[in-house]
Amino acid sequence: MEILSTKLLWEILKHAKSWLTNLDRASNDRKTQSVKAVRKVITASRETAVYIRSIKDTGQPNHETEARLSVLWTELGFELQDIGIHKLAKRCQIRGKHWSDPHHYDQDFLQKADISLETMEKLANEILIQISR
Questions:
Q1: How far apart are alpha carbons 55 and 48 in whole angstroms?
Q2: pLDDT in tens, 15-49
Q3: Is residue 69 classed exposed, middle or buried when 0-12, 13-18 and 19+ CB atoms within 10 A define those classes?
Q4: What is the SS3 string spanning the chain?
Q5: Is the pTM here over 0.85, yes or no?
Q6: What are the C-alpha distances in Å from 63 to residues 24, 67, 68?
């Protein structure tokens, strides 16, 4: 049986330390990425609320704004899905599809999906609290 040389043992320890450092860095990067994505949900929710208020005030929908909101919510859904925040990702995808085609989902489905802006913000804030722990 061959005994590990001091040099080989030293190289293994250096590699292990480097691996642990990279793992910690990746974890911090993932946390930062998650916080940014979840904060975007709150921003998108507020942008959407302003647009809805504008429609109520003027009675005039704007298809360009609706197209932008559709893309915004859809991209958020993909971003959240990529980092494993599936519950919120699914809601974002539904909201994005709803902005692209308001008649795609029936009201019963939308109610069960609970994609209200208040729910989306509340869920996002709860996730932010969990991430910060």
A1: 11
A2: 556 655 654 565 888 889 999 999 999 999 999 99
A3: buried
A4: CCCCCHHHHHHHHHHHHHHHHHHHHHHHHHHHHHHHHHHHHHHHHHHHHHHHHHHHHHCCCCHHHHHHHHHHHHHHHHHHHHCCCHHHHHHHHHHHHHHHCCCCCCHHHHHHHCCCHHHHHHHHHHHHHHHHC
A5: no
A6: 45, 6, 9
Which structure tokens are listed for 37? 């994505």
Distance CA 86, CA 100 (A): 21
- How many Å from the N-terminal Cα to the C-terminal Cα in the chain? 47
Q: How far is CA 46 from CA 24, 78, 104, 107, in A?
A: 34, 19, 23, 22
